[in-house]
């Protein structure tokens, strides 16, 4: 029987937005066009916008509604009073019998007294693609024709909630031209399983090759309303084409403290989740991959990034797509821009230190002396402290800028600030004594190598540079990255891969446990640390898997952002004192007078004292390459003192499934010890490439402790002795047919040093993210023979 006001989801598509609104049109489009791709959408029907207009006409509501809106616009009625009266008109209205009969028949067609969701799908006659997301009501667990009609009436009334009226006024929509279509869809029994949202790009950064899958227990309203912290999975979309891969590059277990379930009387309620539910992921890896493939299919069909909702039926185990709409935040950002800063007035200098980044920021001082006090930090303040370590990262992420008493360019505060894009002035010597709580300051890192802290708010300006308008030099520029989040933050940079991915930062910031403490917890003396290790590894198949999985995913996320360009991952290069800082680490590390020259780098990997830990590192790299599918990963061996040591490390890697040359694996060596230069040919016979570490090479050439404040003036990578070694190793390694890059700090700090490297014929320069634009311009100019 033909219907005047009803269209099933199988009868509508995107062309029907003016009749059924965006939400219903999208559901129809999914059912009609994407079933062949395996996308399942529950059946349902739409009550058209014409049905809504017929409802208003039958109850003669057009004139009273217009009069109330006129009273609101003239100021005779408040928003709250107008909304209350408008809703009362609708809730007291009756359904036209012909329309009610059509709805009853369509509902019966879904099954015998099935549970349905009744949702609002608004549209505007003159703006059919207008978005009214979140403005109107939806109702879940609706059963019976009478309940469907009642829910539909309440959806109509939700056109007149205070927020919906205010939204239309803000957007300039004519209230009389906005109509509501109803969507009635068979419920997926997610109350017995789970539900969530799905994006076809990374929502925080706009990175287009990740799908984001979020999940909670129970019905999906909790995640939509933001009242529960969900599980989160990042999936590298291009690798989904190979069914043998599992390209989930990040998993984050959400707290999931409550879930929404059915309650008697057609209601829904929130109940606490069990401890087991909080410690488990809602979805299996296989289900995450199914949803990610659906995201790819939906995005391809719509031709744009998409924001979707899914649900799992706890009775059948089936997954369903229950909503899809265009993503409207990150997808609207155009080409990336870099910002440069300049002071436009002078200020009173309070402190000087080493500049990190190139930004300028003003704000109130907040002095935090211990990481245990980080919860009292107010977001947007300037963090002032003595020094930082990995425990400080959460508060650093909330800061507008950072000032420290201690530290230099290679300190924790400096490295993390660069990756977060925060301006920082480190090593001021006395910031915690000089600055006062709440004092307004301006932090400037836009005046060269010296960072300055000024009193008050000093005027400054920002200039934006479009990345797509930067020159393209012949010398390959890469970027130095430690954390997976930093890789995503800087994905728009015009670089050709990662020249240094620091494995130890992932271990420090994400894993936090010494690998040998995971394998031999009985040797950890501290009860507190043993409990902490048990807590962070709870729910894992084994403690070794905890280390391998998190490290593989962290490396994989960095590699995926830059695929197919090479990502050079440096094997762990902690010093013994830094390893000891990890949970359980003190039981496994010797105390050394000079850890910088001690048991570090290559010497650890074949030693009985660390061989088992190195095996876990190898397992993680093998998983990232072979399970996640990221074969652009290049492994780099740090602090390799002799060719004989290189042989031992390569043999140990091969024993753990990372044989040089197998599956295209390349292995590089850090050139950071004078012996690497003196014996360049011997090292070139064993490795596929060299990467110069200018920090250690300078330290060991000049005999200057790079962390010594007393000798800071003597530490200079541009010293002629260091430059001669670099020029020599480039020439000799090239003669052996191997590439040479640099991943040290020098070219990021000194564009003239980058120009020197170009003249030496270096193959690649890896930079801190915030220095890419300036160095890129200098390199391009040098290649053209232009000098500043």
Question: Could you describe the 3D structure shown?
Answer:
- The structure is a single chain.
- This protein has 4 domains: 6-186, 2-Layer Sandwich (Dna Ligase, domain 1); 190-329, D-amino Acid Aminotransferase, Chain A, domain 1; 337-466, Phosphohistidine domain (Glucose Oxidase, domain 1); 480-511 and 541-575 and 587-783, Alpha-Beta Barrel (TIM Barrel), CATH 3.20.20.60.
- It contains 29 helices and 30 strands.
- The strands form 6 sheets. An 8-stranded parallel β-barrel has the order 23-24-25-26-27-28-29-30, surrounded by 5 helices. Strands 15-19-18-17-16-20-21 form a 7-stranded mixed beta barrel. The chain has a 6-stranded antiparallel beta sheet with strand order 9-8-7-6-12-13.
- Helix 3 runs antiparallel to helix 4 and helix 5 crosses helix 6 (145-157).
Assembly classification: single chain
Radius of gyration based on Cα positions: 31 Å
Shape: elongated
How many domain modules? 4
| Low-pLDDT ranges | 125-132
